[in-house]
Amino acid sequence: MSVGGGFTSLAPVRAPAPEVPAPAHADASRRPWQATAQYGVSPFVNSYTRPLPSYAETFSGPGYYTPPPKSSVWATLALVFALLGVVLSVPALLAIVFGHIGVVQTRNNLMRGRGLAMAALVLGYVVVGFWALLLTAFWLSG
Question: What is the mean pLDDT of the chain?
Fold first, then answer.
């Protein structure tokens, strides 16, 4: 039987911590982090702290969002006039003009609607081309 009443100790035996000698030229005006920086260890990094999160982690939670850019009114108007131009033919000319304005506005991604402007340009040019071919055919035949 052992000395402790039959039970053995489960706690590990630790050796005493080594003593670190104080620097010879301790300056009272130095801040604590400056005094420990000479040893290469920051007093703010220990087993209870973790590294600071990155900027993206810090500002990606709720309440921090980037609002979407505004839509280009010219691009929307260009598509409307392009669709009207399919039936009436004259608004297709305005669709081409407004489509080019919409493309210029959305060039540097500060505004949305580049796809609308491009679709209006394509549709406007197709409609104007169709009507130009149709009028040329009537003029040549008659």
Answer: 79
